[in-house]
Amino acid sequence: MNTKNVTTKDIEKMYGPLTFGGMLKAYRQGEELTQVEMAKKLKISKQSLNDIENGRKIPSIKRAIILAIKIDVIPELAVELVLQDQISREHLNLIVKVSSEQDHDEAA
Questions:
Q1: Greater confidence, 106 or 76?
Q2: The dihedral of CA 105, 60, 34, 18: what is its sign?
Q3: Is residue 4 scored above 70 in pLDDT?
Q4: What's the CA gap between 61 and 99, in Å, rounded?
Q5: What's the domain range around 27?
């Protein structure tokens, strides 16, 4: 799968509702990387990557941004997914939408 042409909806069809871990996994598989190769790229342990991909751990917002930047994912998406993961873990029926300050300024 070429990740350049994949949309969020495509990912959700294949993996269910998008999570931060699911986004990392979709990227990794799209780039045909093993977990070991992806972990090296992200400079984290394979076990940490496995835990994130499988939803056992949710990274902090700051760490999610750092990981997202390493794979050319916009930081706003990383923040949105991590916050949504935290909300879902608490079984709250809320949806998170994140925009940058620049997006807010342009809308005004």
A1: 76
A2: negative
A3: no
A4: 14
A5: 3-107
Q: Please give the backbone phi and psi of residue 74, each rounded to the nearest 5 degrees, phi first.
A: -65, 140
| Structural domains in the chain (count) | 1
- How confident is the model over 21-33, as pLDDT tens digits? 999 999 999 999 9
Answer whether 56's CB lies under 8 Å from 86's CB. Answer: no
Quick check: helix, strand or coil at residue 42?
Answer: helix
> DSSP secondary-structure letter at 6?
-
Q: Which amino acid makes up residue 46?
A: K
Predicted TM-score (pTM) of this structure: 0.81
Averaged pLDDT, 70-99: 94
Integer CA distances (angstroms), 57 to 4, 6, 21, 47, 84, in order: 27, 25, 9, 10, 13
- Residue found under tokens 């350049």: 4
Q: Mean of the pLDDT values across residues 58-86?
A: 96
CATH code for position 37: 1.10.260.40
